Amino acid sequence: MKGFIPTELSKKQNYQLLTSGVAPRPIAFITTISEAGVLNAAPFSYFNVISAEPPLLSVSIGRKKGQQKDTARNILQVGEFVVHVTDEDIIEAVNQSAMNLPPDESEVDKIKLSPTVSDVVGVPSIKETKVRFECKLEKHLVFEEGESATDVIIGKIVKYHVDDDLIKDGVVDTKKLKPVARLGGKQYAKLGKIFELERPE
């Protein structure tokens, strides 16, 4: 087995090992709104659930050349955001939303998705998605290393939205949802074979 010491690797080498070794990763498709009212949408795969009570999720957003990305800046300014689960039907659009646009241009307009009014937060949701979480900012952490920095956003879920045909007895049917996961490099993965294991007593 090969061993690597993170401090002896470049940022790119650390990134490659992490993103190819920690896989598959769910993809958060996040909408935010700027103080000027511009709707932003972007995908992030450093994302997961961290607590059920209270219902919390986290997303890590790396800064670019020391500057916060639109998503992080908007969340910190407005305090609200919407996380959508990425599935097979919207993966192409989600990928397109990663394009570099100036803050005054909306990815949602560019890729022709349909914004819809959220129930609790002031940030619009994306109509084409099947599962989404309206969130309010709970906590913001910053991790810095050399010239790099990452904004870690912890959001408290204030409303769940699940398509009617996907949910039964409070459980989302993962097969019907068809989530897409992020792997290393340019690779993505669809849902594979599902199996069950009994938890030990």
From TrEMBL:
<feature type="domain" description="Flavin reductase like">
    <location>
        <begin position="20"/>
        <end position="175"/>
    </location>
</feature>
<dbReference type="GO" id="GO:0016646">
    <property type="term" value="F:oxidoreductase activity, acting on the CH-NH group of donors, NAD or NADP as acceptor"/>
</dbReference>
<keyword id="KW-0285">Flavoprotein</keyword>
<dbReference type="GO" id="GO:0010181">
    <property type="term" value="F:FMN binding"/>
</dbReference>
<dbReference type="InterPro" id="IPR002563">
    <property type="entry name" value="Flavin_Rdtase-like_dom"/>
</dbReference>
<comment type="similarity">
    <text>Belongs to the flavoredoxin family.</text>
</comment>
<protein>
    <recommendedName>
        <fullName>Flavin reductase like domain-containing protein</fullName>
    </recommendedName>
</protein>
<dbReference type="Pfam" id="PF01613">
    <property type="entry name" value="Flavin_Reduct"/>
</dbReference>
<dbReference type="InterPro" id="IPR012349">
    <property type="entry name" value="Split_barrel_FMN-bd"/>
</dbReference>
<keyword id="KW-0288">FMN</keyword>
